[in-house]
Amino acid sequence: MTHSENFTKGFFKENAVFVLLLGMCPTLGVTTTAFNGLGMGLATTFVLVMSNIVVALVKDLVPDKVRIPTFVVIIASFVAIVEMGLQAYIPFLYEQLGLFIPLIVVNCIILGRAESFASKNSVLPSMIDGLSMGLGFAMALTMLGTVREILGSGSVFGLSFVPQGATTILIFVMPPGAFIALGYLIAGINALQARARKPKPVAAKAPEPLPAN
Q1: How many CA atoms does the CB half-sphere of 5 hold within 13 Å?
Q2: CB 185 within 8 A of CB 18
Q3: For residue 199, what are the contacts with CB-CB under 8 A and spacing of at least 6?
Q4: Cβ–Cβ under 8 Å, residues 127 and 53
């Protein structure tokens, strides 16, 4: 696999949310707004990249019996850095994300990439893999948050574009709205991918004229 293929896989072919359906807890829980989705996605990306790098560096030093606990400790260390950083510099986002920040430790995307990829590859491919899967996750959360915020609040990234008091579809800012919006997004993306994979019809060649006698 080339570096470019390794980088693009997380956006389309192996997108954690739209294709693999991983990390559903933060996906459904924090995406009431596009800003929350982007913030959670970038926080997860940081943890993914850094933990992949460290796992790739220490993979040969860790005994098999304590491999998973070691990976969890590495991931938890970077989650603590993210949590303290958000609390210090972006307290509004820290309050919005709340319990979902420490829950990054048990996010199956991060532990899965550490176990299935970083523990079997060198530092550079592992870093690219973490960046790919993380940014793909951030893209998915931002898309879902944007859809829910537009339909539920009539705004995007906090910028309202409907008159004050206008009626919006409030269910999209509630938990059921997350399932509905995610379902339609997955269906739409699957339809686009199916259309892209569908072979184009080959134009039939005109029969060659018979040679004159």
Answers
A1: 2
A2: yes
A3: none
A4: yes
Per-residue confidence (pLDDT) for residue 101, from 0 to 100: 93
pLDDT digits (tens, 9 = 90+) for 115-166: 999 999 999 999 999 999 999 999 999 999 999 999 998 899 878 888 877 7
- Tokens 């990054």 belong to 104
- Residues 25 and 31: their CA atoms lie apart, in Å, by 10
Token pair, residue 188, equals: 């739409």
Q: Do the beta carbons of residue 129 and residue 58 sit within 8 Å?
A: no
82 CB-near residues (< 8 Å, 6+ apart): 43, 46, 47, 101, 104
Residue 26, token pair as written in the block: 């933060």
Domain ranges in the chain are 3-159+168-192
**pTM assigned to the model:** 0.88
CA distance 44 to 30: 13
Residue whose tokens read 């991060």:
110
CA 23 and chain centroid, separation: 8
